[in-house]
Design goal:
The structure is a single chain. The chain is mostly helical and 279 residues long. It folds into two domains: 3-42; 45-273, MetI-like fold. Helices cover 76% and strands 0% of the residues. It has twelve helices and no strands. Helix 1 crosses helix 12 (245-273), helix 3 packs parallel to helix 6 (136-160) and helix 11 packs antiparallel against helix 12 (245-273). The termini are far apart.
Length: 279
């Protein structure tokens, strides 16, 4: 290949890469712009502070759904993040042999499961048998199951990027292996670990099918783990399938609020993991 052809191929590849990047950003901008345009008219004080009104009435808000989403995500994080972190540390630092292969396979299998299958499993286990009714606990467990493989895979890959020289230095100083992991490896990979956790929270926060089968929904304020609880994805679904224009507007508004929650989580990650500039 001559120099001219190599140069032309290089320019073509650069153009295609830039075009792909622009297409991805453009799609995101269009989606966000459309949600903002449709959702902003629904935003007011009542929208954030009041509960939904009965069918057909104009007004009300989605305050129970916002609080319910944050509440169930918090419970799911308490369940799923420690399990995902533990599995990631095991696969990264101890993962050798058949058992590690089985754990890795199971994590990949759970990651590939449709969310509605997770919802059906939790419904059959908790809703029908252990708890006996739709509940926030069942919804939180379903979200935790969705979070575990994302946290595990992301954190595992980040921990593998930590240089072995740091591990060897800690061990050479006499630190036991568990302390080396907790005080050297994990803090070194802090930014990636937090990013993985937030990714799992963002993924779980937008799930509708599992919550329809587990938490069901609630038109009132509730913080009882063993009772049905409202959530933004379910509220968006209920509003979107209704025949009322006001509810359609509120569906767009709730969608915008859900996007804002994910954006705030991402902003917090950037602030927490920001490396101070050297002067």
């Amino acid at each position: 290949m001559t120099y001219t052809r190599r140069k032309a191929a290089d320019h073509l590849a650069t153009f295609l890469i830039a075009l792909s990047a622009c297409a991805g950003v453009a799609a995101l901008v269009v989606i966000l712009g459309y949600v903002i345009v449709k959702g902003v008219p629904a935003l007011n004080l009542d929208f954030f502070t009041k509960r939904p009104l009965p069918i057909g009435e104009v007004g009300g808000g989605v305050a129970p759904a916002i609080l319910g989403t944050l509440y169930m995500l918090g419970i799911a994080a308490l369940i799923g993040i420690p399990i995902g972190m533990g599995a990631a540390i095991y696969l990264s630092e101890y993962g050798h042999g058949r058992f590690a292969a089985v754990v890795s396979f199971v994590i990949d299998l759970i990651a590939g499961l449709p969310s509605i299958v997770v919802g059906v499993f939790v419904w059959a286990l908790l809703v029908r048998h252990l708890v006996g009714q739709y509940s926030a606990l069942a919804g939180s467990v379903a979200l935790a199951i969705i979070m575990i493989p994302i946290t595990t895979r992301t954190v595992e890959e980040i921990l593998r990027l930590v240089p072995n020289s740091l591990r060897e230095a800690a061990l050479a100083l006499g630190a036991p292996r568990w302390r080396m992991i907790l005080q050297v490896v994990v803090p070194t990979a802090r930014a990636g670990v937090i990013t993985g956790v937030v990714l799992s929270l963002a993924r779980a926060g937008g799930e509708t099918a599992p919550l329809l089968l587990t938490a069901l929904g609630n038109q009132f304020f509730s913080f009882d783990l063993f009772s049905p609880m409202a959530s933004l994805p379910v509220q968006i679904y209920n509003y979107a399938v209704s025949p009322y224009g006001d509810w359609h507007t509120k569906a767009w508004g709730a969608s915008l609020v859900l996007v804002m929650i994910v954006a705030v989580l991402s902003l917090v990650v950037r602030l927490v993991t920001r490396t101070p500039r050297m002067r």
